[in-house]
Amino acid sequence: MSAPRVVAVDGPAAAGKGTLARRLAAELGLPYLDTGLLYRAVGRRVLDRGGDPRDATTAAAEARALTAADLERKDLRTPEADMASSAVAVIPEVRAALLDWQRDFGRRHGAVMDGRDIGTVIFPDAPAKLFVTASPAARAKRRWLELQGKGVTRDLAEVEAEMAARDAQDAQRATAPMKPAPDAVVLDTTDLDAAAAFAAALDLVRARMPA
Ligand code: CDP
Ligand code: CDP
């Protein structure tokens, strides 16, 4: 089978993956999928039932019961949902339940997909892979500013500590840990604004994935 027309955008929290992937998708005329939403929605479903996001049986059952409406919820980006998503994402049965859906999405019309394991596990044969990163301080500041914009004032050090804990859990888990694929290009955006990151990423994608 020929390689899917998929651009993989992986990396740690608040690196600018979503912003970049959305712009790439619009430019390339491809659908965009934020795969973090899937894990966030599973975490939410577990919390709704008063369950423990670390419990494999509960989390896997909620992953299998996930619906499109779950992805539209407005409470997927709270600190509680951040930690619950990372906890359910450790569980192999949860990841397995979400795998085919992600592959079908990408194979249908191609896609730009952002997450942690798109280039390593979901589409190891994607022609273009980016691992977007930035310093922990820069990423914490971005998330903090985003929250400010939504009217939520939080302690910057607390945001940075929560993010570090989540990144560590994502990078150290046994199944589909967050890491650059061997053929991914690492894009450090610490000193790049979103426009400069987009320009650099587009060059790479054009080189790897001719129209
Ligand atoms: O998807 P991810 O969590 O990696 O990050 P995001 O939600 O796309 O971006 C977090 C924030 O960083 C947004 O407010 C962006 O405007 C900002 N930002 C960026 O996306 N790219 C840069 N190079 C610099 C800032
Ligand atoms: O927006 P941000 O980068 O903060 O997080 P996200 O992309 O929405 O992902 C939330 C959580 O889901 C991550 O911390 C990971 O634990 C998990 N995730 C994953 O394991 N694999 C993916 N492909 C996407 C997200």
Automatic annotation (TrEMBL):
InterPro entries: Cytidylate_kin, Cytidylate_kinase_dom, P-loop_NTPase. GO terms for molecular function: ATP binding; CMP kinase activity; dCMP kinase activity. It is an enzyme of class 2 (transferase). GO terms for cellular component: cytoplasm. Belongs to the cytidylate kinase family. Type 1 subfamily. Keywords: ATP-binding, Cytoplasm, Kinase, Nucleotide-binding, Transferase. Residues 7-204 form the Cytidylate kinase domain. HAMAP family: Cytidyl_kinase_type1. This is Cytidylate kinase. Its EC number is 2.7.4.25. GO terms for biological process: pyrimidine nucleotide metabolic process. Its main location: cytoplasm. The keyword ATP-binding applies. It is found in: Cytoplasm. It catalyses: CMP + ATP = CDP + ADP; dCMP + ATP = dCDP + ADP. ATP binds at residues 11-19. Coiled coil: none annotated. The gene is cmk.
